[in-house]
Amino acid sequence: MPGRPAGSRHHVVVDGRQVPLTVRHHARARRLILRIDPKTGGIAVTLPKGVPAKAGLALAEEKSAWIAGALGKLAQPTPIVAGGRVPVLDRDHVICHDPAGRFGVRREGNAIWVSGREEHIARRVLDWLRREAKREIVPRAETMCGRLGAAFNRVSIRDTRSRWGSCAPNGNLSFSWRLVMAPVDVLDYVVAHEVSHLRHMDHSPAFWETVNSLGVDPEAGRKWLNANGERLMRVGIETASFG
User: Fold this and answer.
1) Which of 35, 18, 38, 17 lies closest to 26 in space, CA to CA?
2) Model's pTM, two decimal places?
3) Taking a C-beta distance cutoff of 8 angstroms, is the pair 229, 186 a contact?
4) Who's near 209: CB < 8 A, 6+ residues apart?
5) CA dihedral of 102, 105, 108, 110, whole degrees rounded to 10
6) Which of 78, 126, 167, 239 has its CA 20 to 30 A from that of 151?
């Protein structure tokens, strides 16, 4: 999956608060695009090649009222702390801390137990969630590939912002670890979507026929992610990035 283009970092004042702003250029951009980053609570502006960064700053200042409204609608951050909760396959788990333990992280029923020092809880739980994501996703990809007579090269688990999954022309599949917090049928849909790209690198009718042949519900999956994706992006955020 191609990396995101590098950008310059700035701040814009919105309702008296300094909000982080990233300005990026993209060769395929045809216009200025302003969006809220749900993971960081900051702003990103994408510019066509050759457009000066100051045009992005001017756009952010012009749209400050819209930005304030959009930030106000963001889901609250969900920090990973002892006593907090995190979903695993859409089932809430309470985070329990055992400072004297030497087991790292383990799941028992609806509890995720973490050993060691308190300041390491977030990192250890997030690392565990990434491992769980790979454990859930790889067998699904293997099974679906078997049904299609296809094969992937490798599976990467990342913390992407704009895509839940992707399929590269070389057969590499990439997925957001945050999918492990979604319902099983939503996870199945995203895996089916990307595996189907091994047969069709487009979104043609043949592609969607392939997705449907894997027994998933694309419409329901997209609808759930549209309604809940922002909430998943806010998991692991200690505080809002502005204030």
Assistant:
1) 35
2) 0.77
3) no
4) none
5) 140
6) 126
